[in-house]
Structure formats: C-alpha cells, structure tokens
C-alpha cells in the first residue's frame, strides 16, 4: 500500500478547472518529483493534498485512509508536512520561535527540545542564528528554516513546493543535499521544483503535470535523458 495515493483528483477555481483527474502514488521512503511548466497546477496539487484547497472530485489516501475534507492541522497530526512556496515565515519572530510554531500542538517540552536539536544538527547555521529575526536571514537560510519548521511536527510525508526558489545558486546544492539526508533518515518526500536537473537527480520517480493533468510518469533517469520529454512537456 502506498504511503500516499491520489485518485482522480480535481480542483477548480471559480468553476475553472485547475486540476483534472490527477492520480499519483508515493511509496514510503521514496522521493518523487512533480515537474512541469509554470501554471501546470503543481502548487495547487500540493495544497489539495495538504488540506489547503478543497477538491471538487477524487480522493487523497494517506496510509490507505481517505483524508479529503480533513482540515490542514489534522493532516499535520496524521503526519503530512508542507514546506510552502515562498516559505511563509514570521519575519519579525526569532528563528527558534518560528521553529517552535512547527510543533505548536506538542506540549511536551522535552519532545520539542529533541526536535529542535535535531533541526539544529541538520542546519547548524540555524543554531548560530537562533535568536535572529527570520526576516534578516538570507534566502537559503530562510529555506532551511522553513524546512526545519515542517520537520518539527515529525512528519512521515514531506511536501516541498519550490525549495530552491529565490536562493543563491551556491546554496541550492546545499538545500538538495539536505533533502537527500532527510530522506535517508526515513522521511518520504514529494517535491515540486522548477530546477529540472536537480529535481530528477534527487528523485527515483517523477510525474509530469501539464495544464492540470498528469501526462507522463516514470523513472527520473529516463525522463532526464529524453529530449522529447523535455521539449514536449517541460518547455526546455
């Protein structure tokens, strides 16, 4: 049984379809990339899985349970974490306060401290900046903080929307290496990313989304080598 299974999911905005009959699967322990041109519906799909956008049809199964209609905070409790596009941090709050917001439902102080220590171990620069306002961090450091905040809820599935957006090229590889390490620790990842080369290199499998529909899926290595796929579906 897949950890995540999306079945014939459709989402509309004011009657206009944004997603139509989308189906995909993510096995436990996998990294799966969702790629496509701007406006293909990738962010909408992650938002629907995370409970932030209502679906007009279809289902989202997490560990075999249909979670369509559950509020976003309940999905976090079940083990689905989201790193949103643009990070959406609280810029005037200190780094450590932003992290603690990721574990806002957890009242056990020792548990929260273990989680924040784990994040600091993965991203040492956040320990150095723990009392610094999040809005004063670099783009790469803010992305590390957004990932760390999502990890504070100890998810089993992490949804990542454009983690390299607005980051200096020198830090992009560092972010992707962190995602690989997170996966090696046992976390399953579903990744939306415009940097096609890095996204396909990181993931074992990929889905191509075009105008709200899945048009292709398969091993990432095959897609990375296919000029036809790059031209026809990704506009490259």
Automatic annotation (TrEMBL):
Domain of life where this protein originates: Bacteria
Domain ABC transporter, chain residue ranges per copy: 4-236
InterPro entries (alphabetical): AAA+_ATPase (IPR003593), ABC_transporter-like_ATP-bd (IPR003439), ABC_transporter-like_CS (IPR017871), BCAA_Transport_ATP-bd_LivF (IPR052156), P-loop_NTPase (IPR027417)
Alphabetic keyword roster: Amino-acid transport, ATP-binding, Nucleotide-binding, Transport
Alphabetical GO biological process terms: L-amino acid transport
Similarity-based family: Belongs to the ABC transporter superfamily.
PANTHER family: HIGH-AFFINITY BRANCHED-CHAIN AMINO ACID TRANSPORT ATP-BINDING PROTEIN LIVF
Entry protein name: ABC transporter ATP-binding protein
Organism the protein comes from: Candidatus Dormiibacter inghamiae
């Amino acid at each position: 049984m897949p950890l995540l299974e999306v079945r014939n999911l459709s989402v509309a905005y004011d009657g206009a379809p944004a997603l139509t009959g989308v189906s995909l699967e993510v096995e436990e322990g996998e990294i799966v990339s969702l790629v496509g041109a701007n406006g293909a519906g990738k962010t909408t799909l992650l938002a629907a899985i995370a409970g932030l956008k209502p679906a007009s049809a279809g289902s989202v199964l997490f560990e075999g349970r249909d979670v369509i209609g559950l509020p976003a905070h309940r999905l976090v409790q079940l083990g689905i974490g989201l790193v949103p596009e643009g990070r959406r941090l609280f810029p005037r709050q200190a780094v450590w306060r932003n992290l603690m917001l990721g574990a806002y439902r957890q009242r056990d102080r020792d548990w929260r401290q273990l989680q924040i220590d784990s994040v600091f171990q993965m991203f040492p620069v956040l320990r150095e900046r723990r009392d610094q306002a999040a809005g004063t961090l670099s783009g790469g450091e803010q992305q590390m903080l957004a990932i760390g905040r999502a990890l504070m809820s100890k998810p089993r599935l992490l949804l990542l929307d454009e983690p390299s957006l607005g980051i200096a090229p020198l830090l992009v590889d560092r972010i992707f290496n962190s995602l690989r390490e997170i996966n090696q620790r046992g976390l399953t990842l579903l990744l939306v990313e415009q940097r096609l080369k890095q996204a396909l290199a990181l993931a074992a499998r990929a889905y191509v989304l075009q105008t709200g529909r899945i048009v292709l899926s398969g091993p990432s290595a095959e897609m990375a080598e296919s000029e036809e796929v790059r031209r026809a579906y990704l506009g490259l």
